[in-house]
Amino acid sequence: MAGRRAEQHPHGADRLCEAGDRVYERAVRRGRVPRVEAEAVPCLLELALLHPDPDDMDWLVPTSPQEVMTRLLRGVYDEVSESQRRVGSAVAAFEWYAGLGRSQALAAPGGGSAVRVLDGLSRIQAAMDEATQACTTEVLTVQPGGIRREAELTEGLHRALALRGRGVRMRDLYTHVARHGQGLLNYLELMGDTVEARTLDEVIDRLILFDRTVAFIPANADRTMALELRHPALVEYLVTVFERLWRLAIPLTAPLPDTGIEGISHREQSIAALLAEGHQDAVIAERLGISVRTCRAHIARLSETLGAASRTQLGVRIAQAGLDGSGRGLPAARDASL
Predict the structure, then answer these.
(1) Fewest CB within 10 angstroms: 45, 91, 276, 312, which?
(2) Residue-wise over 135-156: b if at least 16 C-beta within 10 A, else e?
(3) Plot region of 330 (φ>0 → left; ψ -120 to 50 → alpha; else → beta)
(4) Are the beta carbons of 145 and 202 closer than 8 angstroms?
(5) Taking every annotated instance into account, which residue ranges of this chain make up the domain HTH luxR-type (predicted)?
């Protein structure tokens, strides 16, 4: 019987069924609900949104909304991190196999090279122009690095305008930091509804996909070399990664979610989670697309808000506030006095 009930509620805490929504809201408003009221919504117990009242087992008390929000944000962060790790491993594997294939080239099913190394900016630009001219339906891009410089936007503007002229749809993923760049906002205004943009705390390295048939990824750190991928399995893998990140991303037209902790911004929550994982300031800055100086300014504000006098103490305060993703967050009113 319990199994059949669970099948009727195949969702997570981010998309409650209507019945679950009503019961959980009632529990939060009243402080608890009778157990009998939750019998029709076993999802609330399964998702740990309700749990037995230790003083009276006939009643259920709610998990605080702040803790639920922290848990959801941590889940999104973990999914993005896992996707990044998988893409990094795949790129390393591509490079290794490409090296092995110098004497025995990997061929695409329709003829030609399935993995082509483009050495030099001129060759990269020529290959991108060729793919742009052949594109008829869709372009998917991931653009890391924070605020886009005017030079970067101008570099590919002729391709974007050519695609718009043919009615090709474009979807772009950026970091949240890119929201603050006026150049990007001007670019999106120029492109109109041809381009849809979303943002995440972190994105993978640069990726451009044309018509789900050819993909371009960097082949070295300074992006003076690139890989052109035409093997269907490799391209489909990258499309899947993009679609999963796209589903997790926030539309550029929508505000970033509130952290639920007074005095701590969404970016500072992301920095706190990375600090809890043991990353250095420079690594955190690179992953979030901000400067090291800006990163340290946010860390200083975190320390002040959480009342930490040292980095060691800050780590403890982050864990106590639930900013490390453990879900043990304390009420916002007490954060500063920990």
Answers:
(1) 312
(2) beeebbbbbbbbbbeeeebeeb
(3) beta
(4) no
(5) 257-322
Planar angle of CA 7, 5, 21, nearest 5 degrees: 90
User: Six-digit token pair at 88?
Assistant: 């990094």
95, two tokens: 């490079």
**Structure token digits, residue 300:** 């200083």
Q: String of b and e for 249-278 (b: at least 16 CB within 10 Å)?
A: bbebeeeeeebbbeebbbbbbbbbbbbbee
CA angle 121, 175, 206 (to 5 degrees): 25
Q: Of 44-48, 187-191, 257-261, 322-326, which gets the smallest average pLDDT?
A: 322-326
Q: What is the pLDDT of residues 21-44, one digit of tens each?
A: 888 888 888 888 898 888 888 888
Q: Side-chain half-sphere of 72: how many Cα atoms within 13 Å?
A: 20
Instruction: For residue 255, give both structure tokens.
Output: 């505000």
Tokens for 53? 């009242």
CA distances from 133 to 71, 127, 161, 209, 231 (A): 45, 10, 11, 13, 20
* Contact in structure between 168 and 211 (CB atoms under 8 Å): no
Q: Does position 197 have pLDDT exceeding 50, yes or no? A: yes
Cβ burial 301-332 (10 Å sphere, 16+ → b, else e) = ebbebbebeeeeebbebbbbbbbbbbbebbee
Mean pLDDT of the chain: 80
